[in-house]
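Deviations from the work plan: none for this task. Representative record:
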Amino acid sequence: MKIAKTIKLFINGEFPRTESGRSYPVYIKKTKNIYANICQASRKDFRNAVTAAQGAFASWSSKSAYNRAQILYRMAEMMEGKREEFNDTLVQTSGLTKAEANKAVDAGIEAFVYYAGWTDKYQQVMGAVNPVSGPHHNFTSCEPVGTVALIADTDFNLGKLCAHIAAIIASGNTVVVLMSEEGSAAIAPLSEVFATSDLTKGTVNLLTGSVEELYKQFGTHMEVQSLSVQCTDKKVLAEVKAAAADNMKRVITPTKEVLSLENLTSFVEYKTVWHPIGN
Amino acid sequence: MTPFEYAPSLEGTDNVKIESKNKLFINGKFVAPSSNKYFPTINPATGETLAQIAEANAKDVDLAVKSARGAYNKVWAKMSGRDRGRYLYRIARIIQERSKEFMVLETLDNGKPIKESRDVDIPLVAAHFFYYAGWADKLDYIIPGKKVNSLGVVAQVIPWNFPLLMAAWKIAPALAAGNTVVIKPAETTSLSILLLAEVLEQAGLPDGVVNIVTGAGETGAALVNHKDINKVAFTGSTDVGKIIARSIANTNKKLTLELGGKSANIIFEDAAIDQAVEGVINGIFFNQGHVCCAGSRLLIEESISDMFVDKLKTRMNQLRVGNPLDKNTDIGAINSQAELTKIKGLIQTGITEGGNYFEANGSTLPSKGYFQNPCFFNGVSSAFTLSRVEVFGPVLAISTFRTAQEAVSKANDTQYGLAAGIWSEKGSKIHKVASQLRAGIIWANTYNKFDPASPFGGYNESGFGREGGRHGLFPYLEAK
């Protein structure tokens, strides 16, 4: 008899059940057969995940860009290794054909490789040495904004989700992701990719649950510096933007392209340093 | 030794002509407000009324936005970048030519010392237009790999601390990128931007490209909430910034905010002490402390604290507070009675909370107008109001630290993140501390330096977006 995998949340590098004890069923597409019972994360789970992400920030953001690149590249390697598990999950729960599932995994792998390449280059493209008038050396460099909360697109797309996560963490940010209900079974192989790629524990945290229930907390949490809202519900976006003003979170909405430098620089701050030139 | 007395050296005001009634600037013309209401603008150094300023209501704002939209569609968005740039170059040149009028007017209406409007504000205004003029035909180089579009009509709301400089920071990049503008100055400082309107006319800038609506908070609210604008850019308090962010949350308007700060100035024991003292003075007392990035929290390494504070006192007693038109004046007038009351209230709070208060006594304050001696509170822990709240005046909060790590964690212990200062002669320490401070501008062994080529803007609740440099164009463009 095959042993089924229990699907749980991914917080601080660990796999806890939701503290609320709640779950919802995900069905095998077009059947009434349950594929798995998925954790319905609570506000407390979200707060725990933010604490983990905050805790990971100093370590993850201070790693060398080369080191972060290798870790992102390893995610691609680990995803390739889990291709069959991803395929199986996508075919059974999202109703993709085998070929479509393979393409989705390809897109995820491509995203990790793409953003791995940016980690040690975007600074050179987006930073500057500024020719100020007067005897000062003046340069602008990019820094990660901090902890980012990501509300995933309601239409589940594995490649896009991987791209959003990769773009956020490439510069040194840490992230808490609320996956859409539709694709939430993919949390199992995805969290194992992050757990086995030498990321600082807490750099990526994955939650499954209800956007409707949790989006307000995403907007109001004072330890979150930026919010990526990929779900296209206008009411959610308007309310989250208003709540985000409490601590001036940067709110980022969907961009035209999935693989783009803009998606990375949406989550950086520009810091300008002055120093006199002279004796 | 008796102190060296300075004879007054007053800047003349003959070259400045102030209209008694100042109208709105809409579609290239000075027009009366539809309500026919005017409000006074005061010379804060005397308390006397300088002129009457038109109060724009929602109807006037609508007219201004329509005129900006018309100019965007018919003229400005179609114009080549080269030609847009030429207008901006022309504006920069005329400002240089008329700089004396501008500096005197700015000092009269704002209260800042003439040496600052002469040497800092107005030269930077001209430089800002000149800098962005050159970008207008080079926008394809702004975002790597992308062609760009302008956004449309931009609503801009600016503060009273650097009236014309903030206007330049807003207008120059917006126009270079191909947007048209409706801008509202602060209600206490409308005169210099209205003189700028004359310059725009003189430069032949097409009608409606820049529209100026004067008034207070209601006018600003009507502007940012107008349906036909594409972007809002605001500089001012964090509280108002939050109100604006909430009020446009259910729209697609883009937003940049340059808000308040409580910036730390960190003095290590290996600093060049006398230079650091000057840097602290300039950091907090420049422009009467009416500076969003003012170094208002001084963190001194414990081993040098007593000596440093003594030197600071000596230097503060040498600062000349008084008539802003006097070329010898270091600290001019507080911009308004309301601000002075707020500052005095916060000083009282500091005294009540038990801070060790020192107020400079080197000047006899004028009997008229709004003035505040430079002052500090020593031994102020991070729980004190003065360590947390932006005073926006010449009030410094001093505390000590023992290790670099402690200095960094104290400096970062704020909801703001605009600027920070570091004073040390050890390069490796400066770079390490600079990288750990969560702030948008780090002045190492200097403070309060500004340049059009240098991006300016904050982290966290100090707002988002940058002004100045190539980065200052991002908020006014989008990738195709």
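The radius of gyration of chain A is 19 Å.
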